[in-house]
Write a structure and sequence with these properties.
globular; 388 residues; 15% strand; binds pyridoxal-5'-phosphate; alpha/beta; Aspartate Aminotransferase, domain 1
């Protein structure tokens, strides 16, 4: 797969010199820290966007029926779920949906459970909305992460804790939760009247024959459920996209949708609509290629670490286009690890503690890029710690 032709010229957030300077202390960094793909978008999507721009002006748009039909078919074929149009609506972003859900459905001081290490915005949102972060840390067992169900059941029991947010597949550790694990989560939420928010943005990149299950398939047994998702990250058009909220329960849906309507946040973006509809109709082959490339990149990293006898350990991902690297055999201090690897390799990775202190001494590396760029980067990272 090819990367963006003008990757280095685009004003991409992850390469913003000011961000690089403030995060890594210098501007001359290859940015592999953000979960953002570098691939040129699928040819049919490019063509559809070019055609839409050439076609006419950009008056107010609505989403035609063909859009919903295409989305329904994609969700049925790819995730084996039946989307009900009325239960599915636009939200400007996933963090926006989660923020509104927390504000509308809980009170200040209530506990929101997250499974750290996890995408840092969950923690940020909980703090900004003045709720309490309740951690149900993941357990690392034989180089694979597991949910600590005993701890979860304990935390769920507390009357103060109202919501559990899960990340499926899990960013940053790359687990794709199994049906058995999800069924246990559903049972715990049901027994304790917890609202379950499932962030499924990484659902399309499922590696090495693992199986993704959407929480939507449990909608009949769990009433208090919100699915947040988007295909923008998969198809590399986060710059023009919004997100999707799927909420089967009418009351919860009306509450969240009501807030979006109150602020008039439902306008259709013509380019988003075209990109998404084309992705649903014609994106399948491109997605297959993406998955194959990401799998190859994981294997490149695995092989490079093995061949060089590196002390860096790979936590092999089941999904997502990131890898989680374990530096605990090399460093005991997070700051030292971050400084050392960044300064010597010039590769900008996300240090694990950004995802919660449970991620300390790990680093996340984004690998939705060419095999050559991944090969070069991992060699530089290995070299940066080779004398340690
Ligand atoms: C788990 C997860 N949720 C949501 C997002 C981003 O959502 P949005 O593009 O709607 O802001 C990311 C981006 O990295 C993510 O990893």
């Amino acid at each position: 797969m090819k990367i963006d032709k003008k990757l280095n010229e685009l004003p991409l957030s992850k390469m913003n010199p000011n961000s690089l300077e403030s995060l890594f202390g210098e501007k001359d960094i290859q940015a592999m820290w953000m979960a953002d793909s570098e691939f040129e978008i699928a040819q049919p999507i490019q063509e559809a966007l070019i055609k839409r721009i050439a076609d006419s002006g950009f008056g107010y748009e609505y989403k035609p029926e063909s859009f919903f039909t295409a989305r329904q078919a994609w969700y049925k074929n790819h995730y084996q779920v039946d989307l009900i149009k009325e239960q599915t609506f636009f939200s400007p972003s996933i963090p926006a949906t989660i923020t509104i859900a927390i504000e509308n459905l809980t009170a200040k001081g209530d506990g929101i459970i997250i499974q750290s290490p996890v995408w840092s915005k969950f923690r940020e949102i909980i703090r900004r909305t003045k709720r309490k972060v309740i951690k149900n840390p993941l357990k690392l067992v034989n180089d694979s992460y597991e949910i600590n169900f005993e701890d979860l059941a304990e935390k769920a029991k507390s009357e103060n804790n109202k919501i559990l947010i899960i990340c499926n597949p899990h960013n940053p550790v790359g687990r794709v939760w199994t049906k058995k694990e999800l069924a246990k989560i559903v049972t715990i939420c049901k027994e304790n009247d917890l609202l379950l928010i499932s962030d499924e943005i990484h659902k399309d990149v499922i590696l090495f024959n693992n199986q993704f299950t959407s929480l939507l398939s449990y909608a009949n047994s769990l009433d208090k459920l919100i699915i947040c998702t988007s295909e923008a990250k998969t198809f590399n058009f986060c710059g023009i996209s919004d997100s999707i909220a799927i909420i089967p329960n009418k009351e919860i849906r009306e509450s969240i949708e009501g807030t979006l309507k109150k602020y008039y946040l439902g306008r259709t973006n013509a380019l988003t609509r075209v990109a998404l509809e084309t992705a649903y109709l014609e994106g399948g082959e491109w997605l297959k290629e993406l998955i194959e490339t990401v799998e190859k990149n994981v294997l490149i990293i695995e092989e490079a670490l093995t061949k060089t006898n590196s002390k860096i350990k790979l936590i092999k991902p089941e999904g997502t286009f990131q890898v989680w690297l374990d530096f605990r055999n090399i460093f005991t201090n997070t700051k030292e690890m971050f400084k050392n690897v960044t300064k010597d390799s010039k590769i900008g990775l996300s240090p694990g503690h950004w995802f919660g202190r449970e991620g300390a001494l790990f680093m996340r590396m984004s690998i939705a890029t060419t095999e050559q760029r991944v090969q070069n980067a991992i060699q530089k990272i290995i070299k940066s710690v080779s004398n340690k």
